[in-house]
# Entry
Amino acid sequence: MTVYRILQPLIDEIEQAKSIRSPGWRGSRLSVKTRDGKDLQVEHSNQVWQCDHTLVDILLVDQHGKILSRPWLTTVIDSYSRCIMGINLGYDAPSSQVVALALRHAILPKQYGSEYGLHEEWSTSGLPQHFYTDGGKDFRSNHLQQIGVQLGFVCHLRDRPSEGGSVERPFKTFNTELFSSLPGYTGSNVQERPESAEKEACLTLRQLEQNLVRYIVDNYNQRLDARMGDQTRFQRWESGLIAMPDLLSERDLDICLMKQTRRQIQRGGYLQFENIMYRGELLAGYAGESVVLRYDPRDITKILVYRREGDREVFLARAYAQDLQTEELSLDEAKASSRKVRSAGKAVSNRSILAEVRERETFSTSKKTKKERQKVEQAEVKKAKQSIPVEPEESVDAVSIDNEPGSEMPEVFDYEQMREDYGW
# Structure
């Protein structure tokens, strides 16, 4: 009884700690607690992924140098290795569609061109068994549950907000080591925000994404894991795999792409989306039909076209933006360009319409029929006759007529002089 009396406070403290938060790390293993009371034992890579959002403290501009806003960053973290699996960077606020895009980027193998200047490869890919997130409405949506069912993973919610340290810690690292060194950095404290943030802002969304990808691939994922001390985050992820990741095709992950409202296929297989004309080689036979478009907002030069058949969508073809096949154009860049073109088009159109109306009115009043012109001339002559007095004596231009009873002297006018006097 003496032993129990001494140990009871310690036992109560341990039990209370268990009820407040997850057990956390035990040696080299991690355990996370879900909202429904389960403890997920993290034992290998691609077992439990975590996801979260943050508003990046950098002001971005469009391709014309006009300040837009701060972008949102969504990251997907592997809980076993704390390796960043995938990201999504854009202006859209957190939603299930944004989460789906980040998941798609994390699942698929990643390839980047020479413009990124990478020294390492972002070789992480695969499917998780569990998707562990906070209780935001974007993570509780039916859309995300449907993605989990179709791809074969289970969605879990955190029991406590404090259990999201693994996925939230990289945001602070990005801020202090990367974002604070870039132009347009605003800082997380509004009161201490640099006054020159708006003046120095010059990065576009694409340029920020290139800097972020380079930092993650060449720096963050290559750092030693603090828990192990002899492996980088990527090496721990690679060594922690129990099997080679399943390679899924892009078609298998089409459910993760954003949906757009229906569009109608035009003659010749053409489609119009965001003021851009697209053409698909196999779409000419579907002219006049309504279809569903899916696309990656980071590059909309290629869109995927689906046909609704019953309660499912069937892939038809890819459609490519005309004259932009070798370029990259994000959805935000396309919208910014459209706004600029529309504003310029409205100004030009207003001036041209006004000029056209004035020219039309001038033309309609000056273009008269022969009979109307004769009436005008006769009215002018009559007006001139009434305003010019007749001299009693015989003028040079008058014609002499015999003074016969009942005869009158005809009036004769000098039309050349009247034309000069009256301007007709």
Summary: Residues 354 and 360 are 10 Å apart (CA to CA).
